[in-house]
Design the sequence.
């Protein structure tokens, strides 16, 4: 999927936050989240990004500020693109803002490579508000591997595309499950999402329900029906979450 931060400053801040956590826990509550999803298909914003996948998460939060690491690796097809994302975000009330560093092992397998035209990092800013019945979020790439060198796309050579995505989500309960409906669109032409102009790329509904294993342990199981009207494709994704 995350105000523009210098990557070195962002890294220093992350290390500082982790180092600060043990001391802060004695005075204020620091929340840590650990988990992993197993999914039948890696579906993201209308795009098919892989087959059966493992998607681990590790996060830490303090007074509305959070730092989260998220990854993806193929299980059935190990050759699927590997991904490692870091998101620094702040939330207060229904408002939130953040920045995400997406990293893929292609075109450059080296993680600490940030040079233009060589990096596999994409930096994205996001802002949104949760109104309760619905939530609205806007995402825009602002740095990294988001520039084009293909003149046929209609951009100046090496121009930054600022690929963007906007999504509205609505949670609700039905039939003993927690549901979420979503509709997402790309507002203008970008090869990042494979569209030539405004396009609705994601229409989906997702249901989640806890599967009771023992009296003290349950596993959230989810299923999602999704479609990309722009690409004329549809998906059915199922998975489950492992968490302490």
Sequence:
């Amino acid at each position: 999927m995350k105000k523009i931060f210098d990557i070195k400053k962002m890294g220093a801040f992350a290390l500082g936050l982790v180092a600060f956590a043990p001391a802060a826990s004695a005075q204020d509550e620091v929340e840590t989240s650990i988990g992993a999803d197993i999914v039948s298909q890696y579906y993201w914003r209308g795009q098919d990004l892989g087959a059966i996948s493992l998607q681990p998460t590790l996060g830490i939060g303090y007074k509305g500020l959070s730092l989260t690491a998220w990854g993806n690796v193929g299980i059935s097809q190990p050759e699927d693109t590997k991904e490692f994302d870091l998101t620094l975000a702040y939330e207060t009330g229904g408002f939130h803002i953040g920045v995400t560093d997406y990293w893929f092992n292609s075109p450059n397998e080296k993680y600490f490579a940030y040079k233009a035209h060589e990096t596999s990092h994409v930096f994205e800013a996001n802002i949104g508000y949760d109104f309760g019945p619905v939530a609205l979020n806007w995402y825009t790439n602002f740095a990294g591997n988001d520039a084009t060198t293909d003149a046929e796309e209609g951009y100046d050579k090496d121009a930054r595309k600022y690929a963007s995505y906007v999504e509205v989500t609505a949670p609700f309960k039905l039939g003993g499950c927690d549901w979420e409906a979503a509709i997402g669109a790309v507002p203008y032409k970008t090869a990042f999402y494979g569209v030539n102009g405004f396009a609705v790329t994601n229409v989906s509904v997702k249901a989640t329900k806890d599967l009771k294993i023992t009296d003290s342990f349950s596993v959230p199981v989810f299923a999602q029906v999704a479609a990309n009207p722009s690409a004329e494709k549809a998906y059915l994704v199922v998975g489950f979450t492992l968490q302490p």
Summary: The chain is about 10% helix and 55% strand. Helices lie at 7-25. The longest helix spans residues 7-25. The CA atoms of residues 176 and 242 lie 20 Å apart.
